[in-house]
Amino acid sequence: MVVAAVGVAAAVAGALALGGVLPDGSGGKAAAGPGSSASASPSPPPPGCRGAACDGKDPESMGCGIAVRTLGGHRTAGGAGMEIRYSERCGAAWARIWQSGIGDRVRITAPGGRFQQATVADRYDAESYLYTPMIGAGERSALRACLLPATGGQRECFGTTEDGDAAGDGDATGAAAAGADTT
Q1: Is residue 54 within 8 Å of residue 135, measured between CB atoms?
Q2: Which of 94, 135, 88 is nearest to 112 (CA)?
Q3: How far apart are CA 143 and CA 93, in angstroms?
Q4: What value does the mean pLDDT take over residues 67-86?
Q5: From its phi and psi, is residue 8 left (phi > 0), alpha (psi between -120 and 50) or beta?
Q6: CA distance 41 to 49
Q7: d(Cα 158, Cα 143) in Å, to the nearest integer?
Q8: CA distances from 117 to 101, 108, 149, 174 (A)
Q9: Where are the domains of the chain?
């Protein structure tokens, strides 16, 4: 039994060391003494699209979900949260919604009336983040996001102005939305 326990302890310590975590929890940094330089983290691959080429594409699969900014948010009368998200590296924006209802639609509209939308298909979509495909737009574009309720109720919209600030309109109600910083 003692031999087995020693073997298990050695295997765990070896796995932790190979995984870059030392038993002291330092993540392997203790081994790098003074004067040694840590390797730079690799830069992300270039995005899969830029600007109008991103129209209708998924922000995650195109690599646009890295270093994203929230340009504005809104909490709907029914409690759903909405945000307009923007990727500088892709020159594109999308809207996301959470805590919504099955059948609800979220839409993002860019100047000129171009839009993308997504429909809440099931309970998973309703409870987690659901985002629209991207729309090519500059950071300073006047963008607008709307919730189009499945129940046929009044749509709720908010937007950004051409200077990138959040702006409400006659359909908007509620305070700014709060949410995690994921796509």
Answers
A1: yes
A2: 135
A3: 8
A4: 94
A5: alpha
A6: 23
A7: 9
A8: 15, 6, 13, 22
A9: 51-168
* Residue that has been written with the tokens 């298909």 in this structure: 121
Q: What single letter denotes the amino acid at residue 35?
A: G
Token pair recorded at residue 56 = 């209708």
**What distance lies between CA 29 and its chain's CA centroid?**
30
CATH 2.60.40 fits 51-168, yes or no: yes
The whole model's pTM is what? 0.67
Nearest Cα to 139, choosing from 83, 93, 72? Answer: 93
Measured distance CA(130)–CA(133) in Å, rounded: 10
DSSP per-residue codes, 36-89: --PPPPPPPPPPS--GGGGTT--TTTTT--SSEEEEEEEE-TTS-EEEEEEETT
pLDDT band at 53 (very low <50, low <70, confident <90, very high): very high
> How far is 147 from 7, CA to CA, in rounded Å?
58
For residue 40, give both structure tokens.
């730079």
What sections of the chain are H helices per DSSP?
2-18, 123-127
Q: How many CA atoms lie within 13 A of 127 on its CB side?
A: 3
Q: Give the residue, 141 or 5, on which the prediction is more confident.
A: 141
CB neighbours (10 Å) of residue 47?
20
Say whether 144 sits in a helix, a strand or coil. Answer: strand
